[in-house]
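Title: Prediction job returns without error message
Component: structure pipeline
Severity: low
Priority: P3
Assignee: unassigned

Description:
Job completed but the reporter wants confirmation the result is attached to the right record. Sequence as submitted:
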Amino acid sequence: MKIKELRELSVDELKQKEQELKDQLFKLRFQKSLGQLDNPMKMRNIRRDIARIKTLLNEIKKKGTE
C-alpha cells in the first residue's frame, strides 16, 4: 500500500486498516509455524504497511497538539 493512498484515509479508517493488517500478520505467522506459508515476503510487506500507518497516525497526532 502506498503512502499516498494512506494519506487520503481518515484517522478511524487508518486505525481500522492497522487492525486488519495486524490480524492478517497473525494468520501469516501461524501459517509460517505450520510450514504452510507460500510467500514470506508477504509478512515483510504487511509489517511495513503497519509501520507506515503508525507513522501517519503519529504525524496526525503531533499536528493536532501543536
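Comment from assignee: result matches the submitted record. The domain at 3-65 is CATH 1.10.287.310 (Helix Hairpins).
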